[in-house]
Design brief:
The structure holds two protein chains of two kinds.
Chain A (H helix, E strand, L loop, with lengths): L9 H30 L7 H8 L9 H32 L12 H15 L18 H25 L4 H24 L3 H11 L8 H20 L1 H8 L2 H6 L4 H23 L5 H13 L3 H25 L8 H19 L4
Chain B lengths: L2 E10 L2 E11 L4 E5 L6 H8 L7 E6 L2 E2 L5 H7 E4 L10 H6 L12 H13 L15 H13 L5 E5 L7 H17 L3 E5 L3 H7 L2 E6 L2 E7 L5 H8 L3 E6 L2 E6 L3
The chains are: A mainly alpha, B alpha/beta.
Chain lengths: 356, 252
């Protein structure tokens, strides 16, 4: 069959170029936000000094320590977590064909909270101490993180098993996730009944997702997992587009639909489990970043995947920055700010409709 | 022969849907699979491009048994358009470009873009090219889906009830377009169909399925009222009007 008439579609090329430009603008915004985020906080650092430090040509050394050991890892953590959770949400919405899907859909967040509560209350990893700098210190954050991670994986395994038995039908997977989520919530509440005041406070504190918890080492782990997952998602962008066109169509285009679903769910689970067990519960960014970006560049995963990575990073970094400056000297956890900032923005976009 | 199907059978949870289906299709031919609701027309179509795994038999596309090919390689030889089209916030061009997926390794090439552009021009869809498919009518969406299957550059096109949700004008347009494509490009078509009049008018060959078997097969000129009665249980007469064969139901 020969339909090739040796002519390139000029209008279409222009149309894709516009989308690439939009993505580039997103990257530029993210870069400026990074500078702004590092420069603001309890101590203000002039943005130009931040820039010079980042490119390794700082003239004065007085900001170096704050920038390199506190603010930069925190900002990069926000970027990595935002990108990872956003993209995980996008993948879930596509493979489960459900606009409400997010990393929360699997009850992974609830499982992480349960794991942390179990560790703090039963294993005693989190008796809080009063220190003047930070009133909430968990004794053994590694144990808490580890147990939260294991709990996430267990919840995921149950959901995957059920999905696999039902040939990865999206409805079954979503409903199983909701059930597991409420089971974990109930278990967490049950544990809290038997907790003393300090343990209870530690559990509640843990669930406030916070990007300042990670140090360079933990950031490196999250970054590696996130980057690998994002490469996986981007590699399969055509498969997600095909699944959007319907399971039958996807299958007729050579996509192993059930396999893409199961593997996609595993990748989403790992990325979410890693991020949430290090940082606590960060909701909403995974749900709305994909929707926001879809309203700007459309449904094509060639553009929504990089777009969601940028959008998730911007959203979480902006939330963290606002959280640090809004009621100085208090720091509002990023998970709270995300919803406060994200929800109105999302509602506005919903009402306004699609960008043409 | 472009397609040779031998002894094809399919069971769904120990329930036999069809058994020992055997037929051949030549190049540039258009075949209608017809029969009552629930007889397994769509299932047969899905088995032909292995969306469903047949429980027995062989499917040869030009001497090559496709039963053992990788899914991607099957997709290079057979295009499929389901009865129901999903639409999303994608331009028609992007939706059609998706048909190149079996040929894409990492990213689209200029060749892919040229083929998509060529098919869009061939089907006169240029004015729709950059429109979102979720704003399109049923007829436009059907044409976009057929275009998507065509850019796969298949030897064989499988269409599940391509006219069932279309108005009269769109039915005629789609079917004459399909007939033209098979004439001028080397592709054969199999479609499931309910409308006997359209089948007799536009298609070369037919298969009537009845209780999981091929009841009769041949060229569309050979369809008789007796066959229609045996398959559908309806008395009909076939008359020629203005040069077209017309099936007139006599009961009911």
């Amino acid at each position: 069959m020969h339909f090739d008439n040796e002519e390139l579609p000029a209008a279409y090329l222009q149309y894709t170029r516009t989308k690439i430009i939009i993505l580039c603008i997103g990257v530029i915004i993210l870069f400026f936000l990074l500078i702004l985020s590092i420069s603001s906080g309890a101590v203000s650092i002039p943005p130009i000094e931040v820039f010079q430090t980042l490119i390794g040509e700082s003239v004065s050394l007085k900001w170096n320590k704050i920038i390199l050991s506190i603010r930069l890892p925190q900002a990069l953590t926000a970027i990595v977590a935002g990108a990872g959770l956003g993209c995980a949400g996008l993948a879930m919405q596509s493979i489960l064909r459900n606009p409400l899907a997010s990393p929360f859909t699997f009850g992974i967040a609830h499982a992480a909270a349960f794991g942390a509560a179990f560790s703090i209350i039963i294993l005693g990893s989190g008796v809080m101490q009063n220190s003047s700098i930070n009133p909430y210190v968990i004794d053994n954050p590694f144990a808490t993180t580890f147990v939260a991670f294991i709990s996430c994986l267990l919840a995921t395994a149950v959901i995957l098993l059920i999905s696999h038995l039902k040939r990865a039908t999206p409805e079954v997977t979503v409903l199983a996730g909701v059930a597991i989520g409420s089971l974990c919530t109930a278990a967490t509440m049950f544990l809290q009944l038997f907790a003393d005041d300090t343990q209870l406070a530690a559990v509640v504190f843990w669930t406030f997702g916070d990007v300042s918890r990670a140090d360079w080492g933990e950031l490196a782990i999250m970054a590696v997992v996130t980057v690998l997952s994002l490469v996986y998602f981007y590699y399969h962008r055509w498969d997600y587009n095909a699944i959007d066109a319907g399971d039958e169509t996807a299958s007729s285009l050579g996509v192993h639909v059930a396999r893409i679903r199961i593997v996609g769910m595993i990748v989403v689970s790992v990325i979410t489990a890693v991020i949430m067990s290090f940082l606590g519960i960060i909701g909403f960014v995974g749900l709305i970043s994909p929707h926001i970006i879809r309203r700007i560049v459309g449904d094509d995963h060639r553009f929504t995947i990089p777009g969601t990575i940028i959008m998730g990073a911007i959203l979480l970094l902006a939330s963290d920055t606002v959280g640090r400056v809004i009621i100085v000297p208090h720091v509002v956890p990023v998970s709270v700010v995300t919803s406060f900032l994200g929800a109105p923005m999302f509602l506005y976009l919903l009402v306004r409709g699609y960008n043409r | 022969m472009i397609l040779t199907v031998g002894g094809l059978s399919f069971q769904y949870k120990s329930r036999e849907i069809f058994n020992d289906v055997t037929f051949e299709l030549g190049r540039n031919e258009v075949l209608a699979i017809m029969g009552p609701n629930g007889v397994g027309k769509t299932t047969l179509l899905r088995c032909l491009n292995l969306i469903l795994k047949p429980t027995g038999g062989t499917i040869m596309v030009e001497e090559q048994n496709i039963m053992h090919l990788a899914k991607r390689d099957v997709a290079k030889r057979l295009g499929y358009v389901p009865q129901k089209q999903e639409s999303g916030r994608m331009t028609a061009f992007d939706a059609i470009l998706l048909g190149r997926r079996p040929h894409i390794t990492w990213d689209i090439s200029e060749k892919d873009l040229k083929i998509v552009h060529g098919v869009i021009k061939r089907l006169n869809l240029e004015h729709l090219s950059l429109q979102y498919i979720d704003q399109m009518s049923g007829g436009e969406l059907q044409k976009v889906s057929i275009a998507r299957a065509l850019v796969q550059e298949p030897d064989l096109l499988l269409l599940d009830e391509p006219t069932s949700s279309l108005d009269l004008k769109n039915q005629l347009e789609i079917l004459s377009e399909i007939r033209n494509i098979t004439r001028f490009h080397s592709v054969s078509v199999i479609m499931t169909m309910h409308d006997l009049n359209l089948a007799l008018r536009f298609l070369n060959k037919f298969i009537f399925l009845k209780s999981g078997m091929i009841y009769s097969a041949g060229t569309c000129k050979d369809v008789t009222p007796e066959m229609i009665h045996d398959v559908y249980g309806v008395q009909t007469a076939i008359r020629e009007m203005y040069g077209y064969p017309v099936v007139i139901p006599l009961t009911g």
